[in-house]
Design the sequence.
């Protein structure tokens, strides 16, 4: 939902003009429409389109806030993510990131501004995200969860007959 991102950029820039927005990733078929939207909303000068990148580590080190990418948690970038897909399995709102409803550019903008405005909060989110990655998403922890899941499935099948 790049449209949500561009609309949120307009909201953020109306309150904090020194922010640059970077779109990383394949969007070739939608790029022209997104660029036109950025121009119409008057944010074109503050939006960068870098396309698909084989290695995004260089970009991650530049970001103060990341939107909708779980890689941010491991890279030490506070994340603002939509409540879609597996994002809510990864991010606890207000603890290790901020969540927003899909399409809610006002909440997305609010989350970005909150992280930009409060360096202590930003550090807290990064610290909690790192803790979660290191404790809940290790290979051994994930294997244990899978084992438990399949054991429960097998037990359920056996009890049915």
Sequence:
């Amino acid at each position: 939902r790049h449209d949500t991102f561009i609309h949120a950029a307009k909201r953020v820039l109306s309150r904090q003009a020194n922010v640059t927005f970077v779109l990383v990733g394949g969007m070739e078929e939608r790029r022209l429409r997104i660029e036109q939207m950025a121009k119409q909303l008057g944010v074109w000068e503050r939006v960068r389109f870098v396309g698909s990148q084989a290695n995004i580590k260089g970009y991650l080190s530049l970001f103060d806030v990341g939107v909708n990418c779980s890689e941010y948690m491991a890279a030490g970038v506070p994340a603002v993510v939509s409540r879609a897909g597996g994002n809510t399995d990864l991010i606890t709102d207000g603890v290790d990131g901020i969540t927003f409803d899909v399409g809610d550019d006002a909440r997305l903008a609010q989350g970005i501004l909150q992280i930009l405005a409060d360096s202590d909060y930003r550090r807290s989110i990064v610290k909690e995200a790192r803790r979660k990655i290191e404790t809940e998403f290790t290979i051994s922890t994930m294997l244990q969860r899978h084992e438990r899941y399949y054991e429960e499935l097998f037990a359920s099948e056996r009890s049915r007959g």
